[in-house]
Every structure is written in structure tokens, then in C-alpha cells.
Structure prediction request, 230 residues.
Amino acid sequence: METTELTGDRQERREREMDALARLAVTTSTVDAMSGEFHEWLARDARAGQRSGERRATEARAERFARRMQALVLSTQLGVAAAHEHPIVHDARDHGQAGLVRERFVPWPELGVAAGVGRELWDEPCERWIELPATLAAGHKYVALTVSGSSMEPALHAGDVVLVSVGTSVRRDSIVVARRPEEGYVVKAVGRLSRRAIELRSLNPEFAAFSIPRDDTLIVGTVVMRWCSH
Prediction:
């Protein structure tokens, strides 16, 4: 048991180090600097002198790092901050619904976005609430939502939790949660804007872009932060 727990702690520490390195690379380098040649050099250096089992473990870690780097670069470009820690979740059954309606607590309804759903965001009491990260100022309305589907990979994955700043202001090359008439809520990147329509596009090329009417009632808000599920 002790060995298993130690291994888990070591793995979690490595994951945090990978995240820190990814954030450092994004903040100190341009995307172009993180070129294929640089990644190949890192891989060769990591594999040098390792046994086959160690190489496989290194390659698996490198693959996870590459996915995180890609997600971090894309989400940063689209104005979405990456949360450094897991969300602090509170249960309304423990605190009481009224006790959670306060400035630094954000509702997290049982609702997936990116796939069609059949009910409104606000029509049921919320049992889960997320504590607003200290890096964000209180006094603004937020909602936390769970991503479903693969249309926003590699920036967002199924199971990720996104923090949405509620409001109808929309700007190009941001990520928003919108309601697609007759289908449900989706999380998409904003493409072209006109007086009559908003183009919403997926980051996964397998999913086609589409447009919705430029109607404030169809916009939930802009995604400002994400908690990675893996």
C-alpha cells in the first residue's frame, strides 16, 4: 500500500512538473520556437541510455506532455486560462443551497456542452458548486460547465470543466457557450461575425462550422478558464 501511494504521489508530482514546463514554454517562447526539431532533440535526449521499458514510459510521458502543450497553446491563443489545480467543489447537500449563493461560489449544473441537450441551464436547483479561483475577481456572474464530445480537441476534451463568464458580448477568436436553436448548448470558437449571424467553429477538423443568428438570447457567455480532466 505504501509503495502504491508513493508511486501515485510521484506520478502526480511529475504531472504537475509537466504542466509547469508547458506553461513556462508558452509564456517564454513563441509557438514557432517550439518547433518539430526542438521536440525531436528533447525526445532524443530523454531516450539516450534508457532501457526499452524506460523508453516506453518516457515516450508515454512525452505524448502526454505534447497533448498538454498543444492544448495550452491553443487555449491561450483563444483567451482561456488553464487552472493550475483541481477545482474546489462544494455540495449543496452539505452547505445548503442558500449558503452557496455567494460571490466566490460558481454553480456547476449537471449539463454537458458541445453535444445537444434537452433542458435549459437555469431551470433546476444546482447541487454542485465550484469555488472561484483566487486569480479571478468576484462580483461577476460565472457558471461552470462540463465539456462533452470531441469537437473542440485538442484545446478542450470530454470531461474538462470550463468556467464561463456570463454575458452576451462576443468577439472573434474567443471560445463561447451558445445555444443552438432546436439542439442545445455547444462550446465553440467564434469565427466570422456579421450584424445578423455568428459563425461557430470546432477546433477538430472533423466537425463542420455553422452559424447561429446574432441574438443575445442564444449566448451564455465566454469561456475564461478550464480545468483539465486528464
